[in-house]
DNA sequence: CCGCATCCAACAAGATACTG
DNA sequence: CAGTATCTTGTTGGATGCGG
């Protein structure tokens, strides 16, 4: 990208991560951890291979990620964020929190990955009842499964399944995400196609962070 | 900008503010308050008039700013952020804090405005001695003046001059900014061309916020 | 398959000139 | 002053190819 040529830390940050796709590449590496070219491509539907390749080179040159040949079991290059790259987490958090306000708008053609939903409760909610015992919520949105754990007064999340969750939420991403982030209530979520099984009072423990 | 087409709040945020120049337009409106087309253009050296015009239209359509015909004394259109637009402040803060790490690199051709320096201590430092009496620092970087006030345990800033400051810092932007944000020490800043007059012990009150 | 490199049509950005 | 019109250039997305 062409530099803005301004002595301003916002402009200099954008000189590096302001290009199209760049912050989404960082998002994928932040959410997935070190991964291969193909994993990144799967997590970035719509990106052209040459462009992803270019972005990875730029990010490596800027010192935000490293490219390393993984040991035999993988036998291919792995991309991983450096400390400077991981330091972008507050940027992604701030952007993601601000962007929540647009998640109620329906856009049927949007692609979806469970990872994109899983980070939301972890980043944008806190445990309203830290003293209560741990609990596990299984989420399935658009067929993709994720697990939300409420434990030690914190919210953790990951993709995948768990046996015997305390609560099971299944439905379209809009309903699941809206409910988990407190944007819509249970009744409305069910109206959007959400099915609920288990201890629904657990939902009250997910307290949205203040939006400022 | 073409949408990323992903149901992810980060991607949706970038659908709206991910275009080139867009976040810098928001920065100017955030730092300057409501202003005219020309004021924006002056605060965005390098932007083409047609592009600025396009961005303003897009931001208005997205509900991030309003365009209003100002009353007689100004007699021209004023652009102002809406609440959704102002809600981007945490994004700009996070980006600006992350970008500080690149501000030590010298790029002689970068343009500079006092406003771009003034927000840094206000956003990225706190008053290490909240009980101490108020103090005023006059800063002049690259000929552009700004005022930093340390008061009520907080750091405020604005462009302009004040009579009889407690401390006067004058020098190239890199020296002034580095010193104010705690990236470099006084000795190094003086090596970079900073001149200091007054109560230099005031500098100890500017405590950098943790970088995570 | 993985990790790109190459090619091309469509689009966005930058510079400059111009108008109400 | 506050933009618009036009032109040129650069970037992107998408398809395809290709060695390891």
UniProtKB/TrEMBL annotation, chains A, B:
Q: What is this protein called?
A: Transcriptional regulator, HxlR family
Where is the HTH hxlR-type domain positioned along the sequence?
Answer: 8-107
Top-level taxon = Bacteria
Single Gene Ontology MF annotation? DNA binding
Transcription listed as a keyword = yes
Organism encoding this protein: Actinacidiphila yanglinensis
Q: Which UniProt keywords apply?
A: DNA-binding, Transcription, Transcription regulation
Per the UniProt record, one Pfam family is: HxlR
Does the record bear Transcription regulation in its keywords? yes
